[in-house]
Write a structure and sequence with these properties.
Length: 346
């Protein structure tokens, strides 16, 4: 009999791909939406790559409230907890409470229902040195120090949410197993331009909205590869009770821009090539664009993560960053998510 898998946050970028791939592999799927009326958006997105007819249903449940979670997990065998209520620090100063409490709501409901395994999407930023100046390669045994006063709110929230999940399972998990997946910068094709997630960076570069490229390094992971590691972690006996880094190739944003310019030809003409000095990014973050404060601590960061554990236990191999970035760009262009001048269209 096909297993019923719950995916939290079906309208999200990663969750939408999880739903689609689970359906493609023959699973029955339930996914949560925050409010009634959002179901059709999920159906429209998923239908571009998989047939949801008769095998996808919905539950209304918000990570910020208790209501709906008991019904969401009823009859469920496994849970992919992908959703996160996190926003931008400038507009949501308290990111820790919704991230941690939302995770605990899912785990309480899952353990009470006897779910076999929960796979939680964390972040590589929860397994990184506190100092952005650190170099070298780190693995899953490292935990970010949530008490470090220099951490941006996003990193602190993701770390504390994952710590709370492991503590809960140790104390109350019973027969329910927990696995966590820690991705890097998630790019790749979009199912719909309305759920573009982190690929907004690529869209901004394609549209010419960025005056230049900051000295930021990204561990680019394809959303399709990220879904693969989630599904492997969901079923592999070796994955129970484990953390798995799911980062990809390390590239500087200047390299990312080069991939786009060289791979897209005229359609990539608006992609910036000029590097932005660190001091210019810091000045802009202070006086013009507060959202840039999230990236200033990472300027020049060279620390990288190893995915040897995911390769060894789950057989996981991410694709090259260039392929991911170009597939992402082609998808955004095909969906009309980026406006390219007529003279640059094929």
């Amino acid at each position: 009999m096909p297993e019923l898998v719950l995916v939290t946050g079906g309208t999200g970028y990663i969750a939408g791909w999880c739903v689609a791939e689970l359906l493609r592999r023959g699973h029955d799927v339930r996914t949560t939406v925050r409010a009634p009326g959002r179901e059709q958006a999920v159906l429209d997105a998923v239908s571009t790559v998989a047939d949801p007819a008769g095998r996808l249903d919905f539950a209304v449940a918000d990570l910020t409230a208790d209501a709906g979670w008991e019904a969401a997990v009823k009859g469920v065998d496994r849970v992919l907890h992908v959703a996160s209520p996190l926003g931008v620090s400038a507009t949501a100063p308290d990111l820790v409470t919704p991230a941690r409490d939302g995770t605990l709501r899912v785990l309480r409901a899952a353990t009470a229902a006897g779910v076999r395994r929960v796979v939680m999407t964390s972040a590589a930023n929860a397994a990184s040195p506190s100092s952005y100046a650190s170099e070298g390669v780190t693995d899953e045994t490292l935990w970010t120090d949530p008490e470090d006063p220099t951490l941006i709110p996003y990193r602190r929230a993701k770390t504390l949410a994952e710590l709370a999940a492991w503590e809960f399972i140790r104390e109350h998990g019973g027969a329910t197993e927990l696995t966590t997946v820690l991705p890097g910068a998630v790019f790749g094709p979009v199912l719909t331009p309305d759920t573009a997630g982190s690929v907004g960076i690529v869209a901004r570069m394609l549209s010419g909205a960025m005056p230049g490229v900051p000295r930021i390094g990204l561990e680019v992971v394809d959303v399709r590869d990220l879904v693969d590691v989630h599904l492997a972690a969901m079923t592999s006996p070796a994955a129970a009770g484990e953390r798995f880094l799911a980062t990809g190739e390390f590239v500087w944003m200047a390299e990312l821009a080069r991939f786009l310019r060289e791979g897209l030809g005229e359609r990539g003409r608006q992609v910036p090539t000029r590097g932005l000095p660190d001091f210019a990014v810091r000045l802009a973050a202070r006086f013009r664009d507060p959202s840039l404060r999230e990236i200033t601590p990472a300027l020049g960061r060279r620390n990288r993560h190893t995915t040897e554990k995911a390769a060894r236990l789950l057989g996981w191999r991410p694709r090259p960053a260039r392929e991911t970035v170009l597939d992402c760009a082609e998808s955004l262009l095909a969906h009309g998510a980026v406006r390219v001048p007529a003279a640059q269209r094929p």
